[in-house]
Design brief:
The chain has 14 helices and 15 strands. With 407 residues, it is an alpha/beta fold. It has two domains: 12-41 and 305-402, Aspartate Aminotransferase, domain 1 (Alpha-Beta Complex); 53-294, 3-Layer(aba) Sandwich (Aspartate Aminotransferase, domain 2). Strands 2-9-8-7-6-3-4-5 form an eight-stranded mixed β-sheet. The longest helix has 15 residues, at 388-402. The chain is globular.
Length: 407
């Protein structure tokens, strides 16, 4: 009898529907030369939003040097880490040094690393609902338990502070913040962040702050790092260049430790061990970091009135709210929308089936709301990176589909 292999049971509670099961149907359609409008992944270059030339020049100018072709320190090259320190000093984060910075192959790698270093079986981490699903997957893969706290759609998707406090137990190790938020586009107020920081201090929790969209802000919004609000608990801030500088394929991310490192000396040793085991992140692309953080921030032009991201957000927001049975909170950051579907009008019980039905009818790929660990099958996410004419046509097609849809 031939031996067979099954997947690890560690994967039983792991999912990632942004690149999920519906992609099999997408590949079938595309193999038959049927064009699919992919509004599922936030990859700017795929929509013609390319990196600033000065960043590409820095990588090109350094790629032939010996240092770029060798392993570097497992935390990253010094000039890049120094630029990251200066950047967070400018955001009001004090008392950080080069050793507090870890550069990774994108934030995704670092999310897995920080959870693996922290969690034992049954430990709990508070994660927002909706969330970027890699956080939930990383917690579960690390044998922890993701406990989802509610974000309030009626309050511009701000975290429900009382719900967070109600869900803290003796097993709770940390709280995750995603700000600006993916998938909702919420930008958290200073008051909201201060209240969460006080909870973390009171219960001695680590704060993980995912800030990958911190430069993509609309309507005069200001981004505040919780790391600038506390010295009394450990804060791990994660960010990178994938979105703000349109180089998702370069896989340039980092995390910064700040606040009370004394409460987590053993944990930090674990982080260093795991960082060392993967030797280092991609060295040539680390040379993009200093010029990206310290050069002209052209993302500001894209996000202000008249800018491409700003105008695309406005068109999508207006058009979704004009569809009968659909409502959408206006995003204040990032480049996603998370529209709500009327339960009464559409009767959706299985939102993955809704996404598949839309794909087959209109060849438009979106991600269902439960793919972001939302509690009800009544939302979906689209990426608003397509130029406004194509985006408007896609939303028109979604409206046409919904005009006769009932599950």
């Amino acid at each position: 009898m031939n031996k067979t292999f099954t997947r690890s049971t560690k994967l039983n509670r792991v999912s990632y529907d942004i690149r999920g099961p519906i992609l099999k149907e997408v590949r079938r359609l595309e193999a038959a030369n049927i064009r699919v409008t992919r509004l599922n992944i936030g990859s700017p270059a795929s929509f013609g939003l390319f990196a600033p030339e000065n960043i590409l020049d820095d990588v090109k100018n350094n790629i032939t040097c010996a240092q770029a072709q060798a392993y570097c320190d497992s935390n990253g090259i010094e000039e890049a880490r120094a630029a990251i320190v200066r950047y967070y000093n400018g955001k009001g984060v004090a008392h950080i040094g080069l050793d507090d910075v870890y550069i990774g192959n994108g934030v995704s790698e670092l999310i897995l690393l920080v959870m693996q270093a922290l969690l034992n079986q049954g430990d709990e981490v508070l994660v927002p609902a909706p969330d970027y699903p890699l956080w939930t997957a990383a917690v579960n893969l690390s044998q922890g338990r993701a406990v989802h706290y509610q974000c309030d759609e009626q309050a511009d998707w701000m975290p429900d502070i009382q719900d967070i406090e109600n869900k803290i137990t003796t097993k709770t190790k940390a709280i995750v913040l995603i700000n600006p938020n993916n998938p909702t586009g919420a930008v958290y107020s200073k008051e909201c962040l201060q209240r969460i920081v006080r909870l973390a201090e009171k219960h001695q929790l680590i704060i993980y702050s995912d800030e990958i969209y911190d430069k993509i802000l609309y309507d005069g919004q200001k981004h505040i790092s919780p790391a600038s609000l506390t010295e009394d608990t450990l804060v791990v801030t994660l960010s990178g260049l994938s979105k703000s500088h349109r180089i998702a394929g370069f896989r340039v991310g980092w995390m910064v430790l700040s606040g009370n490192r004394g409460m987590a000396e053993g944990y930090i040793e674990g982080l260093q061990l795991l960082a060392s085991m993967r030797l280092c992140s991609n060295v040539p692309f680390q040379y993009a970091i200093r010029s990206a953080l310290e050069g002209y921030q052209c993302i500001n032009d894209l996000a202000k009135p008249g800018g491409r991201l700003y105008e695309q957000r406005n068109i999508a927001y207006r058009m979704f709210n004009d569809i009968p049975g659909v409502s959408c909170t206006k995003p204040k950051g990032a480049f996603y929308l998370f529209p709500r579907l009327s339960k009464e009008k559409f009767g959706i019980k299985d939102d993955q089936q809704f996404a598949l039905d839309l794909l087959l009818a209109k060849q438009i790929l979106i991600v269902q709301g439960t793919g972001f660990n939302w509690f009800e099958p009544d939302h979906f996410r689209i990426v608003a990176l397509m130029e406004k004419e194509g985006l408007a046509q896609a939303i028109t097609d979604i409206g046409d589909f919904l005009s006769t849809y009932h599950q």
